[in-house]
Amino acid sequence: MNYTRPRALLLFFSGFLGLASNAGAQAPETASDATVTYPAEYFAQFNPYSVNDMLQRIPGISLARSGSRSQSRGGGRGLGAGGEQVLINGRRIAGKSNEGDSQLSRIPASEVRYIEIIRGTSGELDVRGGTQVINVVLNEALSNVSFAYEVNMDRALDGTLVPGGRISATGQYAALNYFLSAEREPRYDFRDGFESALDRFGDLAETVNRDETTDGWPISLTANFGYEFSPTDTANLNFSWTGNDVEYDTDRIITRYQSDAVASRIFERDTQPSESTGFEVGGDYMHVFDNGSRWKTIAIVNEKENEFERSRFKVDPSSSVETKDLYLFNYEKYQERIIRSSYVFDLSQGQSIEAGVERAQTIVDTSLRLGLLTGVAGGQEFGGLTPVTSSVGTVEEMRLEYFTIHNWSMNDRMTLETTLLVEDSSISQSGTLANSRDFSFFRPKVDYRFDITPSVQFRGIVQKIVNQLSFRDFTAGVDQRDDEQNSFEGNSDIQQMSWWNYEANLEYRLPNDAGVINTQLYYQTVFDVIDNVDVSRDGEILSARGNTGDGRRYGINLNNSLRLSFLNQPNMLLTAGLSVEEATHYDSIRGEDRERAMGPRDGGSNYSIGFRHDIPRLNNTNWGFNANKRFLNDFMVWDIDKTEHYSPALSWFAWAETQAWGGLVYRFEARDSNERCRLRTRYAGGTTVTGYVNEVEDSCSINGPVYAIKVRGTF
Question: What pLDDT, in 10s, does the model give residues 178-193?
Fold first, then answer.
């Protein structure tokens, strides 16, 4: 192919920027199929600790690790062909919580042969990435085992020191390879907060001084085994278990005012212990036939169980006598069973087809009990208080999907992948609310890729996406963000949100591994948006999660990663990102279109910057920082009788590490104060539309900067 003219223009552009080659490391290789290969020698000068350390040295790696932002809101519906974007030895790890990406910090760098960034589509891949796929290829050995460990110590705002650590083993014995890891990481947080509330006339009504302590010690165990029975038969078995007991305590001093004078002072204490456990078992088997076609099957069983209890006490400061006036108990058990089987074969030279079926069962059991102090004693299941609410529910979904994926290498520069998927779903609910419904969806996808040059790639995607429902919305639950709202209603009529996604992406990899520039444009038409809806009854104003109306989203994402070679600093890596998004939908409560609520996982507009400096000559020292902040789209929540506005705050993270005594890696980390500010407006005499502003609460809290020291090593 003749790349002379466009290549000359691109080289002129890079020369104008003054980009020099990265003389400090072996350059990666770019194959004709747009796969970029980084051999282990590329990272040798950095002496990395794990695969995760290796990836952080690759320009533009965030594109592969984060996937397509416009497609990542599907909610993890089953396994699908997309999945997470990490392969180990070319194979997908059969798991949802225990997948390839979670292994990257556990596999020692010494075990890696090379890393591939796969930018094209192919019928040979176990996943079909919306952007790129990372393939980590390990060394082959008859008998080999490597251990990696890390111990750390965090310091919280109140001076508490919290230790943690992890250990992992990566090994191979003949045809068996395995990953084993155990981790116990502290989750301690001390948050200091203050809130002031103004009444409907603008006068100070009350203040709240709040101290919150969260103390959790989650533990996780994972195991991944792979066995090659023959060159044509391979199998993998994966297991993970997690457990976490959390103590969450809150002390509040509520001061109420009248005519600018203190009218009363209330002391409250909350205890909110919770227990959670979960496990996942996954396995896959693949057989390769003599003609090169493949049959593969993946099966996963997982379960998560969480129990939450809240007791609120009024405290008499003079006598320290406590009186319980609220009790909440919330239980949830989530179970999922999935099996996916498919057959892949070549239709002709350059064309392949994968046809298969996926069957999934999801079951959620919930229970909610609310007791209040009204003078009538209740049983221990209501904390000894008067029973007010008792709700139980079971939601089950049986889903069956049929899919066909056609991959066509049109020539050595263009590929076209077409997916046709038909889904049948049945959702049944029993308990306090009962309902049963059937759904059918047609979810096509077209993924076109054109390598304009070996360095420039265009990607175009048209896709129908169906969101995974949160079955927690079907039954009554607890709103832990609002001390004055004990619980929220369930909705048995909620249905899946879906959207058409139209996406165009242009990626330019600068010569000599000098950096990556990526631009993405997308537009989405959204149906059956899920938000708060009006379920008021018997004169009581109530809301629940439900389908409020249709909407749209569109935006642009810019991601740049640049080595500062033109400053004679090839080991300095600068990254920057900018995302601008506009999202609106119809609000059934307000009766008009409005901006969508923008939570941390809902996209929105933000900018980010990162910097990394490797200094191999100084004992493999490196340091850097990452920072990001939202703008334009503040996180806003609209409810039936209140609105909440969450101000964006700058989030940052910095580190410095070096290799010193004993050949160990010593790392220092610092994180921001995690400031949270919220402006809540409460309405009375009706809804946010028909009522009046009754109170405005202005609340802020911080947990202070967190400092950590980590020591890592391998043997």
Answer: 888 899 887 888 899 9
> Running DSSP on this structure, what letter comes out for residue 55?
H
**What pLDDT shows up at residue 362?**
93
Amino acid identity, position 575:
T
How far is it, in rounded angstroms, from Cα 114 to Cα 87?
12
Q: What are phi and psi of 471, to 5 degrees?
A: -65, -15
Question: Topology of domain 4-714, per CATH?
Answer: Maltoporin; Chain A (2.40.170)
Which H/E stretch holds residue 9? helix 4-17
Stated length of the chain: 715
3-state secondary structure of 12: helix
| Cα–Cα distance list, 255 to 196, 258, 676 (Å) | 9, 10, 21
Encoded amino acid at 558, one letter: L
Backbone angles phi, psi at 109, to 5 degrees: -65, -30
d(CA 8, CA 493): 59
Instruction: Note the pLDDT of residue 625.
Output: 96
- Three-state secondary-structure class, residue 535: coil
What do you get for the CA distance between the two ends of the chain, in Å?
48
Integer Cα distance of 178 and 170 in angstroms: 6
Of 112, 76, 163, 147, the C-alpha closest to 468 is: 76
Cα–chain-centroid distance for residue 158? 29
**Ranges of each domain in the chain:** 4-714
Contact (Cβ atoms closer than 8 angstroms) between residue 329 and residue 381: yes
pTM (2 d.p.) = 0.83
- Distance, CA of 486 to CA of 373 (rounded, Å): 13
Q: Which residues of the chain register pLDDT less than 70?
A: 1-27, 29-33, 65-84, 94-102, 122-130, 141-143, 476-488, 597-603, 633-634
Query: What burial class does residue 669 get, using C-beta atoms within 10 Å of its C-beta: 0-12 exposed, 13-18 middle, 19+ buried?
Result: middle
Q: How far is CA 176 from CA 94, 108, 115, 238, 287, in A?
A: 17, 18, 21, 13, 17
Q: Which helix (H) or strand (E) holds 300?
A: strand 294-315
Q: How far apart are CA 463 and CA 26, in angstroms?
A: 39
Measuring CA to CA, how many Å separate 248 from each of 273, 309, 314, 333? 6, 10, 17, 21
- Which residues make beta-bridge pairs with 517? 508, 560
- For 624, the enclosing helix (H) or strand (E) is strand 621-631
Print burial letters for 642-656: b (CB count within 10 Å at least 16), e (below 16): bebebebbebbebbe
Closest CA to 124 of 299, 296, 358: 296
The neighbour count for residue 116, using CB atoms within 10 Å, is: 21
Which among 590, 391, 370 has a CA at the least distance from the CA of 485?
370
The pair of structure tokens assigned to 682 is 């409460």
DSSP per residue, 389-454: EEEEEEEEEEEEEEEEEEEEE-SSSEEEEEEEEEEEEEEEEEESS-EEEEEEEE--EEEEEEESSS
Tokens standing for residue 125? 């891949």
Secondary structure (DSSP) of 259-274:
TTEEEEEEEEEEE--E
